[in-house]
Write a structure and sequence with these properties.
The chain is of the alpha+beta class. Helices cover 36% and strands 11% of the residues. It contains two helices and two strands. Helix 1 crosses helix 2. It comes from Methanosarcina barkeri str. Wiesmoor.
């Protein structure tokens, strides 16, 4: 379905998300993406920020996942948001 619509990647939440996790995700992910970095790097930056701020046994950093329609686009730096898609 994603490949038919030419969507190379989607970031999805695999579990329910707490408000503070969603806020940190949106801030970190879009700030990193807007600076020209790729989607995979933006997701990585969120995981680091979340891991550093969570109490022990917190799993918010693992909630978002990157789903790819084409395995070849998994090369670091290849998947970038277009400015028009940023909120």
């Amino acid at each position: 379905m994603l490949s038919k619509r030419r969507i190379p990647a989607v970031v999805a939440m695999q579990y329910s998300v707490l408000d503070d996790v969603a806020t940190k995700f949106a801030y970190t992910f879009y700030r990193t993406s807007a600076s020209g970095k790729s989607v995979d790097v933006a997701l990585y930056e969120f995981r680091i920020a979340m891991k550093d701020s969570e109490k022990i046994n917190g799993f918010g950093f693992a909630t978002p996942v990157l789903c790819l329609s084409d395995f070849n686009c998994a090369q670091a730096g290849k998947i970038k948001l277009h400015a028009a898609t940023l909120p």
